[in-house]
Amino acid sequence: MRVVVLTGAGISAESGVPTFRDADGLWEGHRVEDVATPEAYAAQPAVVHRFYDARRAALAGVEPNPAHRALARLEEHLGDDLLVVTQNIDDLHERAGSTRVLHMHGELLSALCRACEGRVRWAGDLGDFPDCPSCGVSALRPDVVWFGEIPYQMDRIQEALERADLFVSIGTSGAVYPAAGFVQYASGHGVRTLELNLQPSEVSRLFHEARQGLAGELVPVWVE
Ligand code: BJW
């Protein structure tokens, strides 16, 4: 049985990582659509760095929750037949033990050099505009995918969706494409689809089945 799992901010909410579009989703009064764009970065790089530096620092104080751990257990059973595609830039899937994880919107613990296009593991602040360790130019940006940029590994994701038997979406609002379109893409290839989310998402009606509740409760029940 080949399974593709898509995760969003809701799976990390019970770990204490704020979601984007729930009540506590604003950052210093900004909507994510106002800070997560190349235009915002060009206009106010220090503000955007502060947003990501704060979230990177907060990672140290959070732990994976039962939903992340259940997906890691599922990988022990399914091996290469499970692929977790996450929109999250935290590392909670990896810390729970998952190894087959694609970060389609990038990773907090990586920086991308706009000068040499190299990537570097980055645990500190970018707010002080450090030099790239490879080329020496001060051009490091968060290695994340902003609105208008192309999400990472789309070819691999599409291929996995085409070959899957089951697609499961966990903790995502269905407000952001292309991830919100995966359910239609999977269904179009004859794949069964299941949504696990706190409330109906914007695309719930497109799933064969949708269950509502906390990811920390629904995911372990689904996995066992
Ligand atoms: C719980 C829970 C609990 C809470 N248990 N559940 C019109 C139509 C189609 C597309 C577009 C369009 N207009 C513009 C576009 C394109 C645009 C887009 O989608 N815009 C929308 C606003 C409409 N998309 C893009 O620009 C993307 N690029 C693109 O399309 O390129 C073209 C292309 C694609 C493919 C191939 C070739 C070309 C890029 C999108 C980049 C998004 N980036 C961000 C920031 C990343 C870095 C960062 O983290 O800062 O990604 S924005 C933000 O939203 C972040 C998230 O990953 C993403 C999704 O959010 P998510 O995870 O769904 O979180 P929430 O908060 O929205 O929802 C949480 C859910 O959990 C809620 O439903 C809760 O109920 C639930 N929940 N607690 C279970 N305990």
From TrEMBL:
**GO terms assigned for molecular function:** histone deacetylase activity, NAD-dependent; NAD+ binding; protein-malonyllysine demalonylase activity; protein-succinyllysine desuccinylase activity; zinc ion binding
| Similarity comment text for this entry | Belongs to the sirtuin family. Class III subfamily.
Describe the task this protein carries out: NAD-dependent lysine deacetylase and desuccinylase that specifically removes acetyl and succinyl groups on target proteins. Modulates the activities of several proteins which are inactive in their acylated form.
**Name recorded for this polypeptide:** NAD-dependent protein deacylase
Q: Where in the cell does this protein reside?
A: Cytoplasm
In terms of InterPro entries, this protein maps to: DHS-like_NAD/FAD-binding_dom (IPR029035), NAD-dep_sirtuin_deacylases (IPR050134), Sirtuin (IPR003000), Sirtuin_cat_small_dom_sf (IPR026591), Sirtuin_class_III (IPR027546), Ssirtuin_cat_dom (IPR026590)
Please give the Gene3D superfamilies that the UniProt record associates with this protein. SIR2/SIRT2 'Small Domain, TPP-binding domain
Residues the entry annotates as binding Zn(2+)? C113, C116, C132, C135
Main location (coarse class): cytoplasm
Source species taxonomy: Bacteria, Bacillati, Actinomycetota, Actinomycetes, Propionibacteriales
Q: Which domain of life is it from?
A: Bacteria
Q: Which gene encodes it?
A: cobB
Instruction: State the species of origin.
Output: Nocardioides panaciterrulae
